[in-house]
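Thanks for the sequence, V.! I ran Cytochrome P450 right away. Repeating your input here for the record:
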Amino acid sequence: MYGGLLPFSPLPLYPLCVTLPSFHLLQEKLRPWLDWNPTSGQNRMALERASSFSQQVGNVTLKNSYSIECLSLPGTPFNRAIKASNFIRKELVLIIKQRKIDLAEGKASPTQDILSHMLLTSDANGNFMNDLDIADKILGLLIGGHDTASSACTFIVKYLAEIPDIYEGVYKEQMEIAKSKAPGELLNWDDIQKMKYSWNVVCEVLRVASPLQGTLREAIVDFMFNGFYIPKGWKSHKSFPSRFEGSGPAPYTFVPFGGGPRMCPGKEYARLEILVFMHHLVKRFKWEKGIADEKIVVDPMPIPAKGLPVKLYPHKSLVN
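Predicted structure:
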């Protein structure tokens, strides 16, 4: 399914997007994840394992939507969530044990990531967290950042297919960055800072298709707001990435990552992940949707009902 990256070969984007965060998390065993060959036996096995891990995270995410079910009855979403969380903990404990070995042998850095930080940081009494406590903390981070970024990447692909002029703006920006790189040179933080238009597009996608539902965008009754008449049924879905130029929206009028002291701590990671995804996809392909009017379902986050199949068209000349 993931090997057919050819024109007129449908590729379900949502399952792939949902796999990428897990694939990155499991880099201890599933590397590499950016420049992988999908026809390689080793990488195909890695992708299948990451996909399995990803599905389990999705099941745990569903637990929050069905929290009213307090009994773990066979066949219920709550029961699947309990089994999935146990599966994930086992995987995480294996990673934790290996990281301890790598730290002791100098193969991993104490400042490498949050896992190393948790393993080496004690409380005021000098006590360290045990492996299961660390696994629970990592699981919490997974639930907060797994399906959210995947949903965002999926809808970015959807809207770029639907609005060609916005795709061209993103393509132009990303190709300018790609052409400035030496062959094989990776993206760096300065490159991410140059992706201003691309990030405006991401923000617009987050505005019209927020992964976390709750801000309703359709007027259910007629009403007046600051002297303006808003009729029932009015929707604010027309896409204008330019609304985010300059200083952008007023504070607390656009809060896909929350705001104030409880703002999502993963905002910059999500920004990095999404922009790197856009860079590698846009510079290699143009695409069109396989299903023109595919239905969007919310379960519990918005996803295309059929996984957003697309037809990929490789650019004639590829940079790096």
